[in-house]
Amino acid sequence: MLERYVYKNQKKMRCGYTTGTCACAAAKAAAYMLLSGRKVKEIKVITPMGVSLTLPVIDIDIKEDKVICAIKKDSGDDPDVTNGIKIYAQVTYVKEDIMRTINTDGVIVDGGIGVGRVTKKGLKCAVGEAAINPVPLKMIKEAVAEAAESYSYEGSLKVIISAPKGVDIAKKTFNPNLGITGGISILGTTGIVEPMSEQALIDTIRTEIKMHIAEGEKVLLIAPGNYGQDFLLNTLGIELKRSIKCSNYIGDTIDMVCDAGAEAMLLVGHIGKLVKLGAGIMNTHSKAADGRMEVLAACAIRAGAEADTARKILDCVTTEAALDILKKSDMLENTMKQLMIRIEDVLQRRSGGKIRIGAIVFSNEYGILGKTKTADKLLEDIMENNYG
User: Fold this and answer.
1) What's the structural domain count of the chain?
2) Tens digits of per-residue pLDDT, 49-85?
3) Left, alpha or beta for 123 (phi > 0: left; psi -120 to 50: alpha)?
4) Ramachandran sector of residue 102 (left: φ over 0; alpha: ψ -120 to 50; beta: rest)
5) What sign has the CA pseudo-torsion 138, 141, 147, 149?
6) Which of 38, 95, 69 is nearest to 160 (CA)?
7) Same domain, 161 and 236
């Protein structure tokens, strides 16, 4: 068990290791066993961030011309759907006549059952390849080459990475959205899993942005969560696969869209999330900041509402309750106009003029509450680009 800890929200939480680290360790152990003919019960690997791990090797099957073994993934205290999955590596000898027909450095790596295949452009792996990201792929090749060098083996070896339970587990991941079919991805830039890593979520959003751009989308449609995506489908008639879910990371998403080279983005979300933009809050998770009622009260005052109306809003727990108060006082429309002015200003400042950007704010009860000036044109461009 990895004894490495980080602190999150004043809690001590144990780190784990990635599917990439597991694949590397399994491949290294299998290569050593194939070349030596001796069973290896544990294997040592160094992760890209320099952490040394000694991992138990399980499910060993040694044959004369091939070895199969597995490493069980330990995600630590991270709520990872791949926690406990077995990552297998099969290592075999490769005939020299086969090697002469392909360009390789002596180690061939591919994915087997439960490891996904890439079907869309924009990912780190080419279309048709196994979803084994560049860093884990490099780790696997170097580990197997190290084993070959240890036994002065100058021939070539083939590695097949598999995860039998990955077929079902992948359905609970982002892989279907990313065009990765048939299994999980072998991931891990650092080789170590940090509990509840925000960076992992942000990296997933970045990957999806790049994929949409690679498919020719010039104007990206962004929604914070399920409410936004349901609204896009049921109210605007836009398929969910056309949108990118950004969770609470609106500011980071704007930065990544600008960096990825998109022309524009349209943000569509429930007022419970997007009202926070009116205060310049770019991470809309409740643990980061709130200010919903304060923003609505300020916008209401700006729109001409009485002080008593603002006080009632400040006493509300939900934005829907605040909207009811504004509706009853006949201040809903004008308050939303003020809110959209503030949201537009915040979006423009964050994007720095690098892209066209706009927003549509809605509620479950009242439907569309407001749009920025550019929202209709951006929506028109999205419909033309995706359905024209």
Assistant:
1) 2
2) 899 999 999 999 999 899 999 999 998 887 688 999 9
3) beta
4) beta
5) negative
6) 69
7) no
- What is the rounded CA–CA span in Å between residue 228 and residue 240? 10
Yes or no: say if 82 and 73 are a contact pair by the CB < 8 Å rule. Answer: yes
105 to 87, 109, 153, 170: CA distances (angstroms): 24, 11, 14, 30
Which of 156, 171, 193 is where one domain is finished?
193
pLDDT at 359: 97
Contact 245, 224 (CB under 8 A): yes
Give residue-wise pLDDT tens across range 252-300: 999 999 999 999 999 999 999 999 999 999 999 877 888 999 999 999 9
Question: Do 297 and 250 belong together in one domain?
Answer: yes
Is the domain of 182 the same as that of 258? no
Last residue of a domain, one of 162, 193, 224: 193
Domain containing residue 214:
198-387
Beta-carbon count within 10 A of 170 CB: 24
